[in-house]
Amino acid sequence: MQTSRFVELRCLDCRTVHPTDSHSVCAKCGGILSGVYNLSEKLSTNSELRGIWRYGGFFPPVSEIVTLGEGSTPLVKTPRFSKSIGGKVYCKIEGTNPTGSFKDRIASLGLSLAKSGGKKGVFTASSGNAAAAIAAYSAHAGLGCLILVREDSTLSKIAQMRAYGPKILRVRNLFKTRHELDRALAKTQSALRDWLNHFIWAPYNPLLLDALKTIAYELALDDRIAPDYLFVPTAGGDLLYAVYKGYRELLEMSVIEKMPKLVAVQGKGADPLVRSFEQHRPHVDEIKPPARTIAGALRVTFGADHSLRAIRESGGFAISVPDSQILKAQRKIAALEGIFCEVSSATTLAAIDLALSQKKIGRDETAVALLTGSGFKDYSVFSRQKLPPLASIEAIPKAIKKI
Ligand SMILES: [Zn+2]
Description:
By secondary structure, the protein is of the alpha/beta class. The protein has helices at 79-85, 103-116, 129-141, 155-163, 178-191, 209-212, 214-222, 238-252, 272-278, 305-314, 323-337, 343-357, 380-383, 396-402; strands at residues 6-11, 17-18, 33-37, 75-77, 88-93, 121-126, 144-150, 167-171, 195-197, 229-233, 261-267, 317-321, 366-371. The strands form 3 sheets. It has a 6-stranded mixed sheet with strand order 4-5-13-10-11-12, with helices on both faces. Helix 3 runs parallel beside helix 4 (155-163) and helix 8 (238-252) crosses helix 10. The chain is globular. The N and C termini lie far apart (56 Å). The mean pLDDT is 94. Bound molecules: zinc ion (ZN).
């Protein structure tokens, strides 16, 4: 284990220092809290550990590590897909994590904190990927687990989390508004006092974001790529902000010379962040429910201001993509490159295509798409296609000529 460089938990806006175990926004100004680390010493990593824990010095301190081998995900060049849209695209494939999504990075840190803090269990609310990750890691840690799921979660996602044996409650209107979500989590905490609220969003769990910044560390140090743009599927904004924070830390330690421009991607019809960015708003304004996009993990009506900060300070932009283009991109990256990502991840590829055609990015500029989850998370679109069987084995040669 590495010595943690953690210094304190501080408000991003007014810089007030809060207790390390805070599970809220700043009591003084309502700003989002963020872990501050000692960056005055040279970067050091633990080469004996794999994945995110190589960078464990940049996490809050834990006495026990709960890991299933998350992180160290592949970065893959996509020559055929790139040619088809006239750009230069790399994919960071988070679907190779143990439960098939980037949330495993957070669950590993979260359950390590819960175990180190002597908690009896963890609870969360999730559209699916976070729930599967938290259920798996709490099983591995031997802790209790309660998941509140939204009513429109796909059955394939619920099926996966069920396998890990958590208690599950399906709740109507769970994510309808920020207020409803707050109420649900507060009611759960009051019923389970010695359990950890593991809801993955900076306003509730600011320190968990530090697990996600390892994506920036891996891109810079392991994949050795300095892309012009990084396209990030964005719901609450944590991933976007965490990657930004990772790059900021690397800049401060003089490990890199510049950070990529960060691009927030949302589905059209569920794009509060894109609208607020384009209207130069100081905050992410809630949009009227219901949120509509085929990208289930991005179906949100609200966001948080740390994501706006990440886009603006990196010199990036925000873009929304319609369902038809998301599905087209998902098929294309699978058929041309053998990369099967979930619908919400394919938003990034649709967005790169759109940004190229709108000349928001140049054809010679490098773009990395963060493919946050595996296509196995929900392949119902593909399983609905009919494939009638041949009458006999003798019919194969004739059938080959037809296809
Ligand atoms: Zn504050």
